[in-house]
Amino acid sequence: MRAPIGLRISSKRRALGVSQAALARRAGISASYLNLIERNKRQVGGSLLIKLAQALELDIGELSGETEHRLIAEVEEALADPLLGNIGAPSAHDLVAQQPAAALAIARLHRAYLGAQADADDYSDRLRTDPLLAQLLHRVLSGITAVRSSAEILDDVADLDEAERRRFVQAIVRETRGLSEVARGLVGQFEVDAKARRLSPLRELDDLIFENDNYFPVLEEAAAELRLAIEAEGPFSEAGLTALLARRFGITVTRSASREVDAAGFPGQYHYDAGARTMWFQTSAIAATRQFQLTRLFAELVAAPTIERVVETPELTSDVSRRLAYRALGSYLTGAIVFPYERFLSDAEAANYDIEALQQAYGASFEQVAHRLVTLRRPGAVGVPFAFLRSDPAGRLTKHFPLPGLPLPSAGHACPLWAIYGAFRTPERTVRQVAQFPDGSRYLFVARAQSRRPASFADRAIHTSIMLACDILQADRTVYGAGLPLADPSLDMPVGPSCRLCPRRDCAERQEEALGPGGQHVAIRAPLVARSFDAGEGS
Amino acid sequence: MAVDVLIAEDEPSILESLDFILRRAGWSIASVTDGDAVMGMLRRSPPKVLVLDVMLPKRSGFDVLKQIRADDMLRDLPVLILTAKGQAKDRRTAEELGANGFVTKPYANTEVLDEVRRLIGLAGAA
User: Fold this and answer.
1) Are the beta carbons of B17 and A171 separated by less than 8 Å?
2) Which end of chain B is more exposed for a tag (fewer CB within 10 A), N or C?
3) Cα(B75)–Cα(A525) distance, rounded to whole angstroms?
4) Residue from the list B11, B17, B111 with its beta carbon closest to the beta carbon of A153
């Protein structure tokens, strides 16, 4: 459910003691239009939302309710977990509004549980034979039982007194903490150095990116300096970077068709051998990849302390998290060098965010351009807010940057109707789609499936699909909105977040049983002849 | 005061919520937190129903159940097994040992309430 932005604007305005007329004047709109916005009779987004946020001296995230959106999405996902069955929980929206502490505890618990579950899945064979691990798993189930039972009491018992309410909220918090410890214990069973790895490094990285709104000023500043340093010695190009790396660091760039692995044994199209001072590319690596990775090498050699400063944050609790973050922020820094902020934003606006046109202008790949577009979040110079997704041909999401309000599954698969999957049917062609979610929210999806070309007959092409998504209110700022019936929702593709989280009963694509936000049971295809167990959850 | 339901459960948060929901349903409750304490409590103050966790410290719930069914005084006591072990094998073990009900964790509170209500009915009919 979308947060009522109008109500937020109205309550913030009142809290500041600003009249409707005064705020309307500051935002450059009429008082009557502001009145409609505050009563949620008109949608607000894009530049007007930015103006209103500035006029109210608020962060745009605070106004659009990003944090709350995310918590609602996480709680919704937790409540829809098949493990909980049909408990008749209140909607995530109501829970977040009425019991924010309990909602946060449930979201954290579910994260911890998912992390533990993922690790448990990976090592299921060992789980079956190791009594200590079986005991840890038993503790996970016990913790979930306690949380579920306490949450039901909070939900079902209308006349709980304050002390009782506090007792059961504290039980949820206590069990959440206990589960985190158990999860860490589970992880520790499989690590050579148990202290080197903690729970959900990917989620920690997600949190870091989300909390920084996918914009890192320190890295942007460093990128601007590095770009100047590169251009001081020649044009920014593959040849220029190759010469610069040779001159400054004695590095040689080589290419061959062979199949090689990096220092960690990972096969890829490139790797750097620090001992031999050699950067190797497979012959199939395209120019955009070579330019990007040479830039990354230069950035990592020169600006490692800058990336490390960003990575040294308490939010990243393990070396695995920090390694993942270092890699991701290295990519961010590289993107910021290849696509300098002001120029790229200006070019993107001028090209109406035409990714193909930007590819040509910067000699870059579709994924590189799409990736950079989602980082255009500098306060005062914000681009169209996009979410980013990447999928493998099995449908598994391998990378994602969220967008507040857009319900992205945190792992696994999204809705099979999303353009990111349809794009695999028309490789190397950009496809677009107006998608409508069950709550009525609408997004423009732009997707393209592509292949990493093989180096030889024996080599395999690797296929991925990339998708950007933006709120429908921003769609007319992009070339991809042109000619689409943006004002006519009847022609939208009805989608959901994923089968498990989708309440659409009439969807022929459903592959998995789901629970709606209210715990409502949604059946998958029934047997031809009804059976006793075909009556729903709990039967 | 006579005890309606004895709970044998070692997880404090689960015990707390079970105690709350069963007491709220109008029954008098007593509790123990390990397997060794169950038999002593049953003899001192026999309840109408025993809610018995399987993974208890000192002595497992299955061991306790076996001992109950071998005891002339207690053999007819209705016992509801609570367990995080949901496999068919464990359910079969519970049935073979003479459990009257079986609830798998994580459960809904109503599942436990319904089972206890049913077993108290059995105790009344006996």
Assistant:
1) yes
2) N
3) 46
4) B17
One domain, residues A89 and A36 = no
- A106 assigned to some structural domain: yes
Contact A372, A339 (CB under 8 A): yes
CB contact under 8 A, B106 and A84: yes
Q: At what angle do helices A355-362 and A341-350 cross, to 10 degrees?
A: 140
Nearest chain A residue (CA) to B53:
A142
Measured from the Cβ of residue A351, the count of other Cβ atoms closer than 10 Å reads: 16
- The number of C-beta contacts closer than 8 angstroms across A and B is 60
Tell me how close the Cα of A171 comes to any Cα of chain B, in angstroms.
6
Contact predicate A150/B17, CB 8 Å: yes
Residue of A nearest to B22 (CA): A153
A150 is in which domain, residue-wise?
A: 69-199
A13 and A83 part of one domain: no
A138 with B84: CB under 8 angstroms?
Answer: yes
Q: Do A149 and B11 touch (CB under 8 A)?
A: no
Q: How many CB atoms lie within 10 A of CB A190?
A: 14
Measure in Å the smallest separation between the Cα of A92 and chain B Cα atoms: 18
A178 and A264 both lie in a single domain: no
Measure CB to CB from residue B14 to each of A83, A84, A145 and give the nearest one: A145
What is the complex's ipTM, to 2 decimals? Answer: 0.86
- Measured CA to CA, the distance from residue A172 to residue A106 in angstroms comes to 8
Chain A CA closest to residue B111: A538
Residue A490 has what DSSP assignment? G
Strands, E assignment, A285-336: none
Determine, for residues B107 and A156 on separate chains, whether the beta-carbon distance falls below 8 Å: no
Tell me the torsion sign for CA atoms A501, A502, A503, A507: negative
The pTM score is 0.56
Q: Map residue B10 onto helix, strand or coil.
A: coil
Distance of alpha carbon A240 from the chain centroid: 34
Query: Into how many domains does chain A fold?
Result: 4
Which residue reads 């939302």 in tokens? A49
Cβ distance of B109 and A153 shorter than 8 Å: yes
For every one of its 539 residues, what pLDDT tens digit does chain A have, with 9 covering 90 and above? 344 678 778 888 888 888 889 999 988 888 888 998 888 788 777 778 888 888 887 776 667 676 677 788 888 888 877 677 667 777 787 787 777 788 888 888 888 887 776 665 555 434 444 455 666 777 888 889 999 999 999 988 888 888 999 999 999 988 888 888 777 766 665 553 333 334 467 777 877 887 788 899 999 999 999 999 999 988 899 999 999 999 999 999 999 877 777 776 677 889 999 999 999 998 888 999 999 999 999 999 999 999 999 998 887 888 888 988 999 999 999 999 999 999 999 999 999 999 999 999 999 999 999 999 999 999 889 999 999 999 999 988 888 887 766 766 656 678 999 999 999 999 999 999 999 987 778 899 999 999 887 777 777 788 999 999 998 888 989 999 999 988 788 889 999 888 777 777 778 888 776 543 333 444 566 677 776 655 443 33
